[in-house]
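fold-stage: in
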Amino acid sequence: MIDISWPLSNNTTGYKDRPSVRIESLKEFDRDGACESAIWMTSHSGTHVDAPVHMLKEGKTIDRLSLESFSGHCVVLDLTMVLEKITSQELQEHADLIKDGDIVLCKTTNSYQEPTAPFNSNFVYIENTGAQYLVEKKVKAVGIDYLGIERNQPGHPTHSELMSNGIVVIEGLRLAHVEPGRYMIVCLPLNVIGLDGAPARAVLLSA
């Protein structure tokens, strides 16, 4: 079992350096005889699943997505040679690895940044033609190893292209320690009613 989740702490990187996670002590053992903490986080902190309503006004909320939407057969693609954006051209080089119904995880140089580093506005992202290609390949979900799947694209076309075609978006994965290849993925976002997304724990299992 390989954990591919972003570790959470008070120092966790936040999208565009916005507050992301805050952990406070409520009880301490020496004082209260037990330990208890409060956790505050956004719906898009660390590893998380975007619900369609995040970008589509009439889209489903996170509690209305089936667990099968973001768990199942998975392929990790080595895209560490990409310097800026993942287009259809880069994905076509891996065409023989992507099967119908796959969950595609993009391993890029993003994974080699520290999980507490300042936000990198030049992270590698999936450009709209890449999203269109994944729609054509009939994948089930797409994961990226940073806190956003796109950047600086007016109208959020990557999100819209994927979500409008029923493809789930997983962001904030950690893949530096993962060899490219086929796996099973279990990714379980918190079951929060009516939310636009939720933090998740994601692990890989041997296929």
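fold-stage: in (second)
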Amino acid sequence: MQSVAFYRDQFEEYLSSGMTDRDPKSLYDPMFYILKLGGKRLRPVLTLLSADLFGGDPKEAFRAAMAIEYFHNFSLIHDDIMDAAPLRRGKTTVHKKWDLNTGILSGDAMLIEAYRFLEPYPPKVFKDLTTLFSKTAMEVCEGQQYDIDFETQEEVSVPQYLKMIKFKTAVLVGAAMKMGAITAGASLSDQEKIYSFGLYLGVAFQLQDDYLDVFGDPKVFGKQVGGDIIENKKTYLYLKALEQGDLQQARELKDLFSIQPKKTEKKIKRVIEIYDQSGASKETKEAIAHYTNKAFDCLNTLDISQEKKEVLLTFGRDLMGRKV
């Protein structure tokens, strides 16, 4: 079994080969722009890894991996519009570089292209892939709506938040792994086990993302640090601070998240202090480790060689300790 770096390089080469000039440029250039911004390629790499894991030819999983990557980037374009985000991976977002209408339409086109990548698969494989893909796409939309609802919802519980990130982020990671297994002809039991591995890994990944939004280095992370605080997002850190903090900390945190102060740096600084003092930052790091270990438990139930398991174990450990 090849390394994660090998699959990432292979996927990058395959992705680049499909980004040729197409008309109208005003539709396709924004699509290729966000794809060229890079990123970790977490999801498509997992699709290729999963295909190899179950004895399939990773080359047969390339189109499924492309579908996953196109869908993911479609969601990023639209998320950035909804969040009015100026930066994505350290670069200007699509709707800021072009305009709002271009962002919406190019995002729509990416979603359509994602499905088109699946068309060449044999009928049974195509049906299984598209059934999973459509279910996942709808769950991602549901997760995004939960996220939007939480902005105005007075009380949000930790279980509600975990459900939101499961749908908004984790299901796509799980689907990426299961799609690789489907292309490899893995058993239904193995498909479900590898889906669960990806799901738990996806939850850990999003919790780590929340943590880095507050405690990461903006030059390394590629996003505005403290963005979730500025937007008053009820993240795991926020909810745990309310849960773990004393009455005064909870009251102050709610007050800070009920206003949009002009001096955002002061707000961010104080919120970070409360996250640390209440133990929320420690609790979040422990949750990241918890869900990563749950993913590893799923992996250990698979009847595959230890060598193959080790590739994914290393991948998971690297994600847990990532800085970007």
